[in-house]
Amino acid sequence: MASKQQSEKEFLKNYNIHDYEVPLTSVDLVIFTVREERLHVLLVKRADHPFMGQWSLPGGFIDVHKDKNLEATALRKLKEKTGVKAPYLEQLQGFGSKTRDPRGWSSTFVYFALIPSDLVELSQGSAVDAVQWFPIAQDQPLPHLAFDHTEILEVALQRLYNKVEYSSLAAHLLPAEFTLSELQQMYQLILGRPLDKSAFRKRIKEGDFLEELNGQFRYGSNRPAQLYRLKQGLGLVYYARSLSSD
Amino acid sequence: MASKQQSEKEFLKNYNIHDYEVPLTSVDLVIFTVREERLHVLLVKRADHPFMGQWSLPGGFIDVHKDKNLEATALRKLKEKTGVKAPYLEQLQGFGSKTRDPRGWSSTFVYFALIPSDLVELSQGSAVDAVQWFPIAQDQPLPHLAFDHTEILEVALQRLYNKVEYSSLAAHLLPAEFTLSELQQMYQLILGRPLDKSAFRKRIKEGDFLEELNGQFRYGSNRPAQLYRLKQGLGLVYYARSLSSD
DNA sequence: CGAATAGTGTCTTTAAGACATTATATT
DNA sequence: AATATAATGTCTTAAAGACACTATTCG
């Protein structure tokens, strides 16, 4: 153990993390997409112990050589599993306890990602038998998940539902170009309730995070709909007031 | 390395975390209080390398034997430094990178605590020379902090300012019993702007997180003020609308 | 033209801001 | 009574909800 007398340089030369009992630390991801009018979450079947053969959230250990920070680990894992490079990504929360992993004290930094389904190419990673989208729906319960991943997924869903109420978050589940009606449908799908068209559009205009694609429309057997895309480099826009108050 | 053929039990018997290069993992705390009409943050002077002698946020390593989960580590550290057992405590965010600690890849789970100043008894911990409250103010810059703690503190302050706008958070900085005027002053102090008394009170009543202490008043050379306390077991109350929109 | 969805306008409702007024203690 | 702060009431404002109405394309 280091003495107080030595210099910082000397101290670092003698420092060895393996002199201490440390927790396992990993990064896990809750990746959502919407396909076929339904919210889905990405799960992987574990190829190794512990919980071999069970479904779990994608994730893994920090590579102390490759990853420069936590977000880099999350992006690396995301790309391995989905091929998506630039998703909406934010940190959800850390989870850590003595009991969540049979190997011992374990902690994980969980990230929360939204990706438009048109960008996804699922790939089989080296340590997984399978990668699969599972719909989030009452009538279709998810399989039992490894570790505390059922609880983590629940926290992620709450974050999603809440944040959609007062921010532009839902737009990140759509392809790059979309109409206001498509955006409203996305909000409705996630919130599980219809929204008033007029109020919705006033809010979006107020938020000022979309740009009109001049002269570009979505055509159908009706009046064509103006196409929009997200203004670049804006991040999320938050509203002063939540979508509904009761 | 474990083979896929063995049982989970066998696998765990042979598993050794020290076979891998793992990041350092710690828990740090941003502890706020308000004393003498000013927001303060608790800092400790580091007694050991690295950054010996520099001020830093209180924190330390997870004790894999004592701590049952991350929050337990945070509460243990908080109690060691302040004597406070049941503060307002929430997880702020994880921070982790190759460069934040000279010992190597390092990650930390940062917790955010609010404590009423009347409960605090500062104590000198074993690994610190000093524990001290520092005022948060433009005209009084904080010392240069160890690691990335300046950045972490900035994130915590933003969380504080934001959350006070739309929740009952500020009430957790007051002693157990307080008047509505005292509560309003606390909000004003943190937000740095005056609030309208009538609007403020309507909001608090709407939130319904206070209970009147029947017949108990704060006396002065004026009309006595009704005393209130937080309703127990409620957690934070969030408003549908932020305090001000411009 | 009819069907269908896009897009806008008007009135109401809700919660907050501005600000005046009343209430009740001490000195 | 004067003073000080507590507590409440009224009017206005901002943004959302309800809902009707107009616009524009295709078949």
Describe this protein's structure:
Two copies of one chain form a homodimer. The first copy, chain A, has 246 residues and is α+β, with helices and mostly antiparallel strands. Helix content of chain A is 25%, strand content 30%. The mean pLDDT of chain A is 90. At the A-B interface, α1 and β5 of A face α1 and β5 of B. Chain A binds a DNA duplex (27 and 27 nucleotides) through residues 179-181, 195-199, 201-203, 206, 217, 219-226, 239-241, 243-245.
Defining traits:
homodimer, 246 residues, alpha+beta, Nucleoside Triphosphate Pyrophosphohydrolase, 2 domains, 3-stranded antiparallel β-sheet, 5 helices, 10 strands, DNA-binding
Brief summary:
2 copies of one chain form a homodimer. By secondary structure, chain A is an alpha+beta fold. In chain A, 25% of the residues lie in helices and 30% in strands.
The tally of domains of chain A stands at: 2
**Would you give the CATH topology of the largest domain in chain A?**
Nucleoside Triphosphate Pyrophosphohydrolase
Overall structural class of chain A, as computed from helix and strand content, comes to: alpha+beta
Subunit arrangement of the protein: homodimer
Compute the CA-based radius of gyration of chain A: 22 Å
Largest interface by Cβ-Cβ < 8 Å: A-B, 47 and 47 residues
Overall pLDDT of chain A: 90
CATH superfamily of the largest domain in chain A: Nucleoside Triphosphate Pyrophosphohydrolase
Number of helices of chain A: 5
- Please report which band the strand proportion of chain A falls in: under 5%, 5-15%, 15-25%, 25-35%, 35-45% or over 45%: 25-35%
**String of helices and strands of chain A:** HEEEEHEEEHEHHEE
